[in-house]
Amino acid sequence: MTACATDAQVKKFREQDKLDLTFGEISDAIDKACGIDFFHDFKTRSWETLNSYTHTGILQLGRRFTGDKLEPSYKEGEQIEVLRTSTISIVLLVRPFLMRHGQKEAAVEVDKLGSRLNRKK
Fold it and tell me: Which residues contact 39 (CB under 8 A, 6 or more apart)?
């Protein structure tokens, strides 16, 4: 919202809880506004998997069982990857927000943090 939404889009979202853009259009707009190439590729690579987890697909159902017991089944490495991806996504979105509000020094620090996170893969 802070990187590329128009005032009218923000107002509509705030008042109607509705966006008229697809996730693909949103990811492209964020990449363009932020001068990065991340969200489009992330959406393309993960969309099918994320939908299967979100909309009671086979991936979500498979994670509801450990053996024959009804308990979550997430490996530690999978949990770490979700946390890492979420953190990097937040870092990428915080930077343009800071720049838009005149916080260049803080944005530079976010860049440094993003570089360190990206190296820890």
Answer: 26, 27, 28, 30, 31, 89, 92
